Here is the input.
Amino acid sequence: MDACVPTADRDKQERLAVKICSTDQTRSDGLAAADAPPAGDELVTLAVTLMQSRQTILPKHLVAPGPDDGQLALLLQAAASAPDHGRLLPWRFVVVPQSARTRLAEVFGAALLERDPAATATQVEQAREKAHRAPLLLLAVVDAQCGDPAIDLHERTVSAGCAIQNLLLMATALGFGSALTSGKALRSAGLRALFGLNAAEVALCFISVGSVLTRKPARLRPAPSDFVSRLPDADASP
Ligand SMILES: Cc1cc2nc3c(=O)[nH]c(=O)nc-3n(C[C@H](O)[C@H](O)[C@H](O)COP(=O)(O)O)c2cc1C
Here is the structure.
């Protein structure tokens, strides 16, 4: 288990997260209150620390205990804070409880054999085993069609990505490790059937959350200069 976040600290983090999430934001007209968010150096430090401490911990390194029911509620509430053009709620998450992991394992094994009928028994077993990793496993799904058709799949997927990142950051705040995983099985008919996806839905990725068994040093992050450019000023010659 990760020694970085002692239980007492984890309890403190959880109380803070509960406080933030349970703030009554409902006005008499039923709309969310538009209070200015708290700002200041402390919050900036908190945000930077939180964002920089999130790193992928692969599912094989995520062990029990996973989030309890209260912590799972916090993860999902965090997802709900994502920007969502047109308020379509174009994404959803499906929790895969331990009792359903064997069915998911069957889907992973079958998807591999469908793609590669020559796969060995060992390869099929490796594919199946992935369904049993991490105490909390969710599938993230985006809907390409619900609501306003002018809001295309790109926008919907950005919203889903924001929801996923919020969830990952809350997992980090609670002291858990997390990972996103994809793979060709996401597009298999068996997986689509197991998760009851309709024709307009796309399975985006799995989200794994749990206690960290081992972690690698965080990867070097790109510098803003690696991904930022600037339009020339209006008076600059072409
Ligand atoms: C949609 C999505 C799917 C991903 N799928 C996988 C995967 O199948 N296997 C894997 O090892 N990492 C996967 N990753 C994680 C990335 O590899 C990881 O974020 C990257 O290496 C950067 O590491 P960091 O998250 O620690 O910054 C995925 C990430 C995203 C956004």
